[in-house]
Amino acid sequence: MVNIRTYLEKSLTINDNDWNFFTARLKLKKVKKRTKLLNVGEVERSISFIDKGIVRFFIPKEEEDKETTFGFCFNNEFVSAYDSFLTQSPSLYELETLTDVEMWSMSYEDLQEVYKKTSIGNTLGRLSSERLFLIKSKREQSLLNETAEERYLNLFDERPKLIKEIPLKYIASYIGVTAQALSRIRKRIT
Q1: Tens digit of pLDDT for each residue in 62-97?
Q2: Helices 148-158 and 168-175 meet at what angle, rounded to 10?
Q3: pTM listed for this prediction
Q4: How far apart are CA 113 and CA 130, in angstroms?
Q5: Dist CA 143 CA 180 (whole Å)
């Protein structure tokens, strides 16, 4: 729980009363590798902060090699099917752990209470929304303005240790190429 406070206090000051109210609503979840956190058609009921691990966002297909991976969340990041969470409507995609994950989760209802009853609630919500928006915007800009090789190199630069834990087929899907094309990119780089 120390990581979440350190992360939040980079952007806001949290008094002890607000911190205690906030943390009383957090629940530690330990999830094994390759566990679905959310399936298509389910409503996202919580937002979580990853203490340890990697989560993948993807659109499933009947053939696994045709799935579209469109996002990853790592240590010290919030994770949620945020559009489903905000609207409390069914998700159009899935979340899956790629490693063992430890995360602090808060339900939609509890977060509404934090918004209402703390001085940090609305700022916390805004900062979480902004962070998730920036990740999404960066991804879209990357797909529009960079080559697959540039996207691969940027992902590798941003997460050099963690990327080693992500199967190459998911990295290939994320940067918008086939596994064979990623193999060629990797050969050119080395």
Answers
A1: 887 789 999 899 999 999 999 999 999 999 999 999
A2: 120
A3: 0.89
A4: 20
A5: 19
